[in-house]
Write a structure and sequence with these properties.
alpha+beta, 5-stranded antiparallel sheet, 39% helix
Length: 235
Amino acid sequence: MAITQHDCITCSVRACSILNECDKETLKAISNFKLTKFLAKGKRLFSEGEPVEGVCFIKKGFLKVELNGKQDRPLILKIAGKGTVLGYRINAKHSVHTCSAIAVSDVQYCYVPYELFDKITSKSSELRHQVINLFIDELELVKKKALTLAHKTVREKVAESILLLAETFNCEKEENEIYINFCRQDIADLIGTTKEQVSKVIKDFEKEKLIKCTAKKFSYLDIFRLNEIAFPNVQ
C-alpha cells in the first residue's frame, strides 16, 4: 500500500545509496514520481523471470536476494538492507528479473516506475554512472560468491556468513550481539550447503566459545577469531 511521498533531498537513507551524489534536480524528479510502499515479512518484492517494472530503493528492513538452484533449492546471493537499490537495469535486454527478492523482515521502500526512472537517468550523467557502477559491483559479487562456494570449507563459509549477518543486522560492538531474521536453512542457502552442516558448525563454534546462539539470537561474537576462520589467507 502506498503512503505519502517523501523528499529525496532530506532523506537520511540517501547517504548510503546511489542517489547521494546526484544533483538537486535529479532528486526532485525522483521525489515527484516515487511512491513509498510497505512489504510484509515473507512476501516477495519480485520473482526471478518476472518483467522489470520499477526501481526500488530500500529504506527500512531486509530482503534476501536469491537465485533458483538445483532441485528448487535457492542460493542466496546477498542480504539487501537500507540504501540498496533493486530492480534497475542497464539496457532493454535486461527486461526480466534474474533473481528473486523476499522480505526477511517488514520492509519500507520507495518505488519508481522503470520508464520514469529511465528518463530521469538519461538526463543525469551522475545517476547513470552510479547505476553502471552498481551493475559492475553486482558482477563482482557473483564472482566472489562463486569463488567462495568453490574453494572454502563449510566451517569457513559459516564463519563468513555469521560475520556478514553481524554486519548487515548491525552487531553492536559494546553489546556484541545480534538478533537475525535468518534461520539455519537460510544460512545454508546463503553458503550453498545443508541445514545439518550449518547446525553442526554452529555447535562447534559454541563449544569453542566463538558464539552463543539461542534461536535466532547470536551473542558473544568473537569477531577476531571468526575473521581468522573465515579468511585464513588474509594476514
